[in-house]
């Protein structure tokens, strides 16, 4: 199948032009909720495309604290860094729900990059996008208050998973205060206090474990503070 690489493989107008390629050549695999797709120390042998479900990427510190790097949903490509560097996995990829993924092995990926330089360009863009995300997350952790960090997470969730309602923007994504704390390197109690502050300011309301953003502009201003 690699021989067909003489023909155009990628659609440069698509946001991630290699996704269709991975769907065609990747091997399907199913994961039950709370099971790892890969774990720290394992050999990095595959690039992953998430077809269904949700996956959480995280790292643990020496003292046992956990930092969530990303919450991935359908269409996300991940696991590329260690594959390209040929190093062991440094992160845990855990199925947050039942999930289905496509796995592209390193040998096939190397052959594709050798056959078509655009595959390597696509991966470079993917790495650059990931680096920009991590840089933004680091800036948030270093320079924003706890309330600002929580507000930033809620703004991002509203933009990605928001559903318009009469009250405001419903964040149609189940996430606990502990999970938010893991995203912004703080405690569950601190997140709960920030939620109380945001409710008192009239920026959000909560209903049945879901958050409704009442004032997205105001929440965005707090995220920038």
Please explain how this structure is put together:
With 225 residues, the protein is an alpha+beta fold. It folds into two domains: 138 residues, Jelly Rolls, CATH 2.60.120; 81 residues, Winged helix-like DNA-binding domain superfamily/Winged helix DNA-binding domain (Arc Repressor Mutant, subunit A). The strands form three sheets. The protein has a four-stranded antiparallel beta sheet. The chain has a four-stranded antiparallel beta sheet with strand order 2-7-4-5. Strand 4 and strand 5 form a beta hairpin. Helix 5 packs across helix 6, helix 5 crosses helix 8 and helix 6 crosses helix 7. It is elongated. It starts with 18 loop residues before the first helix and ends with a helix. The N terminus is likely disordered.
Secondary-structure blueprint:
Layout: H1 19-25, E1 27-31, E2 36-38, E3 46-52, E4 55-60, E5 66-72, E6 77-78, H2 80-85, E7 92-95, E8 99-105, H3 106-115, H4 117-143, H5 146-161, E9 162-164, E10 169-171, H6 177-184, H7 188-200, E11 204-207, E12 210-213, H8 216-224
Antiparallel strand pairs: 1-8, 2-7, 3-6, 3-8, 4-5, 4-7, 9-10, 10-12, 11-12
Brief synopsis:
The chain has 8 helices and 12 strands. It has helices spanning 19-25, 80-85, 106-115, 117-143, 146-161, 177-184, 188-200, 216-224; strands at residues 27-31, 36-38, 46-52, 55-60, 66-72, 77-78, 92-95, 99-105, 162-164, 169-171, 204-207, 210-213. Helix 5 (146-161) packs across helix 7 (188-200) and helix 5 (146-161) crosses helix 8.
Main attributes?
225 residues, single chain, 2 domains, 8 helices, 24% strand, Arc Repressor Mutant, subunit A, 43% helix, Jelly Rolls
């Amino acid at each position: 199948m690699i021989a067909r690489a003489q023909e155009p493989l990628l659609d440069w107008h698509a946001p991630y032009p290699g996704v269709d390629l991975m769907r065609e050549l990747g091997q399907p695999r199913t994961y039950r909720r709370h099971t790892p797709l890969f774990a720290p120390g394992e050999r990095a042998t595959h690039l992953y495309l998430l077809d269904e479900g949700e996956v959480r990427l995280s790292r643990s510190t020496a003292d046992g604290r956990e930092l969530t790097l990303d919450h991935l949903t359908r269409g996300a490509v991940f696991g590329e860094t260690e594959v390209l560097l040929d190093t062991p996995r440094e992160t845990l990829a855990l199925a947050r729900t039942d999930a289905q993924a496509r796995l592209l092995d390193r040998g096939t990926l190397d052959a594709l990059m050798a056959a078509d330089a655009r595959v390597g360009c696509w991966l470079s863009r993917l790495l650059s996008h990931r680096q920009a995300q991590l840089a933004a997350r680091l800036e948030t952790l270093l320079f924003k208050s706890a309330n600002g960090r929580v507000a930033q997470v809620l703004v991002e969730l509203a933009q990605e998973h928001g559903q318009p309602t009469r009250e405001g923007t419903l964040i149609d994504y189940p996430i606990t205060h502990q999970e938010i704390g893991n995203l912004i390197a703080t405690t569950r109690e601190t997140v709960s206090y920030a939620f109380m502050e945001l409710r008192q300011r009239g920026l959000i309301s909560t209903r049945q474990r879901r958050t409704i953003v009442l004032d997205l502009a105001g929440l965005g201003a707090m995220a920038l503070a």
